[in-house]
Amino acid sequence: MSDKDIKKNEDVLADVDEIMKKYDRESNQRIWTGKPGIVVKVIMALFSLWCIYVTLFATFLEEIRLTSFMGLIILMGFLIYPAKKYETKENFMPWYDILAMLAGSGAFFYYAFNANDIIQQGTRFEPYQIVIGVIGILALIEVTRRCVGIPILCVAAFFIIYSLSYGLTNPEFFGRVRYFVRNLFYTKEGVFSTPVDVCSKFIVVFIIFGAFLERTGISNFFIQLANCVAGKYSGGPAKVAVISSALCGMVSGSSVGNTVTTGSVTIPMMKETGYNNDFAGAVEAASSTGGQIMPPIMGAAAFLMADFVGVPYSSILGRAILPAVLYFSGIFITVHLESKRLNLKGIPKEKLPVFKVLAKKLYLLIPLIMLVVWVSGNFMTMQKAASLSIILAIVVSLFDKEHRITPSKCLDALEAGGKSTITVAAACGVAGIIAGSITMTGLANELINAIISIAGDRLFIALFLTMLCCIVLGMGVPTTANYCIMAATCAPILIRMGVPVMAAHFFVFYFGIVADITPPVALAAYAGSAIAKSNPMKTAFNASRLAIAAFIVPYVFCFDPALLIIDTTPLKVVQIVITSLIGIFGIAAGLEGYINMKMNIVIRIMMVVGGLCLIIPSLMTDVVGIGLIAVSLLYLFFIAPKKPAAA
């Protein structure tokens, strides 16, 4: 790498922290240095170790496990996240934050230390216990505001106000408040419902595993591997971005984090090759967002899906493979066509890594491979598999002097895992409040009946309305919380209309994820545009176009669950994958407007319509779709080239 290239990369890396702080609330943290910094780091590390211990060995009451977990989350949330953005004062925590931290965490610890008595007292709660519940809920909401953002709180506020003003039937306001707080704070129907349970039991261990895996240098290995595979081909850097983001996303699970991490390397490469700024930022954003649907780790919502649907996590992984392949195939096709349209070259051979050298680091994949084997083979629980994979990550790092996980790096990884858990747990807690409000007021049934009455027996309309709900709700709401809400409200609608349970949950999961690149609030696209120095809105629209497969594939597996390997045969799976790939190619090419030459508007429409026809599982629509695409290709390759040029 030349001095000029190094200087460019340094400039980009210098902006990474600022970009993360702007588009990722989780990155806006207090500045702890010196001895206070060491104390905070040790607290985070001890929390991670405590979570691993509890999920593997603890036998105490579930109520104690959940309340103590959330109490620690509240304590750490106030300790790490300031009330305002861009807090620059070192080793400073205002008195009101200390008071809020003690009161908020104390409310949860009160429940933890008195769990047996609280369980036995049934519905008889003293006024002071209701006050404690209110303090706990308010503290959770404030921590969520600090580390997740306002949008999810707007959704929660709507359901809370609806519950207290209209949804609950108790004529006295304080009676409604008492019932509301009791249900949300002292039962498993609110804060301590499925999202927090799954987070404390499974997600946290996988987050810690991801932190250790990142410190082995696997992200850089994935980028180098992608360079070896696709770097030399036309428009190589964009193809490298697609592959590396898919691989890194398996570890990261965060759209914005993945965009900034891999984008700081790939976006400058794409711009240097000849891609315009908007397209370069969009490629990285679309690819990084897909990391949450990429097995084996996927996003935190995948763990929740396993619990909601009632299947092993390995079952979710197996069914996610084909849709993920189609998603990234769609991006790859568009990237390839764009590179051909611009006549771009690949990365020069002398700048590419040598595979023989890179192959010596294939041992870095051992923790991931063993995790997949242990989980998919049901040899042990997910928690134990992730814990053993952490140990494997430490072991394989010993073979690389540069990325060796020393005791100091081990402490860093545990700290990073603890910090990352705060955001996910807070979002899960608020998602539990929202889901609990929906359940106790019966709003879910009203919504289901309303949409079914609008859609009638037309599944497409129900799917379209559900898609809009997911995307609108996902504008600024984390995928985990978005999925929890949609699983409680919209997934039952699709199930009522005959969609298999697994397909319904995958549908809302997918559209919750693509909200990260869908305008007007497209955080991953905006992060990509900040690195690319491009127009944020143009980047978001380009990212949505690149990720067109994410808008199509969910419809495919709802109309024909064979794509999710549900009630099907190998031949049927092969058939639907082939037709889906052809359909995605047709739509991507039609939207791009170029294959071997620039297309006229008629051919573009034929390609898009042909692709859309292949979504519907019918022999007639398949024939029409393939026919339209075939006719278009015949015209482009055999008829149009022979036409004389216009004078």
List keywords for this structure.
single chain; 647 residues; mainly alpha; 30 helices
Shape: globular
Rg calculated over all Cα atoms: 25 Å
DSSP summary: helix tally: 30
* Residue windows where pLDDT falls under 50 for at least 5 positions: none
Topology pattern, helix = H, strand = E: HHHHHHHHHHHHHHHHHHHHHHHHHHHHHH
The main sheet comes to: none
**Beta-strand segment tally:** 0
State which percent range the strand residues make up: under 5%
Distance between the termini: 48 Å
Helix proportion range? over 70%
- Mean pLDDT metric: 86
Judged by helices, strands and strand pairing, the structural class is: mainly alpha
Give an overview in words.
The structure is a single chain. The protein is an all-alpha fold. Among the domains are: 20-192, no CATH class; 205-275 and 282-299 and 331-421, no CATH class; 569-640. It contains 30 helices and no strands.
